[in-house]
Amino acid sequence: MKNLTEVANYNYGIEKIFSEAADFLPINGTDYVELYVGNAKQAAHYYKTAFGFQSVAYAGLETGVKDRVSYVLQQDKIRLVLTTPLTDTGDVAEHVKKHGDGIKVIALWVDDARDAFLQTTSRGAKPYFEPQTHGDENGEVITAGIHTYGDTVHVFVERKNYKGIFLPGFEAWKSEYNPEPTRLKYIDHMVGNVELGAMNQWSQFYEKVMGFANLVTFDDKDISTSYTALMSKVMTNGNGRIKFPINEPAIGLKKSQIEEYLDFYKGPGCQHIAVATDDIVFSVSKMKSRGVEFLHVPGAYYDTVGDRVGTIAEDMEILKSLGIMVDRDEEGYLLQIFTKPVEDRPTLFFEIIQRKGARSFGKGNFQALFESIEAEQARRGTL
User: Is the pTM of this model over 0.85?
Assistant: First the structure.
């Protein structure tokens, strides 16, 4: 552990990074994440069963929507929207055809959507759609959108004058099937994969266009094995509620996980959602019992992890039995585990994370994590 002076200096450094994030685009948090999928009804059943999300809202033919169906699920502060096309043409159908199931919209909750659109487009963002007002008997919501890497977009959502279930056009979705939540709390961060040479372009986009700051940078010396490597820059907004690591592949002897993602997703996109819990043992145990598959962590990892992270509150044998990894920084430690891809293409997956003071991203686990991912790539024949 560091001495008190070193800890104070570290804390000062972190706070300085947050303060460097410009304040022209205040963001309250993640409003929702929308996935375009091949079958939203079945995908909703999966996320309810496996992850413990609860039914919230629905839009489709019964509500007057003719080209798509959307199911809204929520667990604590995490809100997922699953959308599927009703025709073989249009943006949803084309997205699913090209990418498979994947994240289209990362929606950001703001106080003023019109200003957020103006601030970002005036700094170079490509408009996705201009500010729109949507209303019903529960009030009004203002939204606007901009493009980011690949086909991913950000939608700004201003809902301070709305009291409805989700958005105008949606109705409450009542279901008799509501499995117990798995104690997932909020989105900790979301990781974007971009092509070789594009990491700096998109980190600069978040800095210049959206007012983010670079929280930490990892190069191929930090994130590599004998075969593959990647580089990453973690971008954060001013209050630290939104963190977007941007990954690109680095030169290696074999195909990295980033290259595999880009090949199967057919371009850049959101690789994984990290969701926080306050009891990772409970969350992972429940999810495993419901069929969620997690990456296998080599048993040898646990032979030395105690020496590296020191004393923790959790039973290391229980963590080992579940495959949960541990890492420590100057402010505390974290526990984390990664699912296998949640669809047949080896693209989108989830990270489950519990922070016990740590603000970092598990650098000490990178080696074991990459070896686990490479083992899965080898099984798929894509390494």
Answer: yes
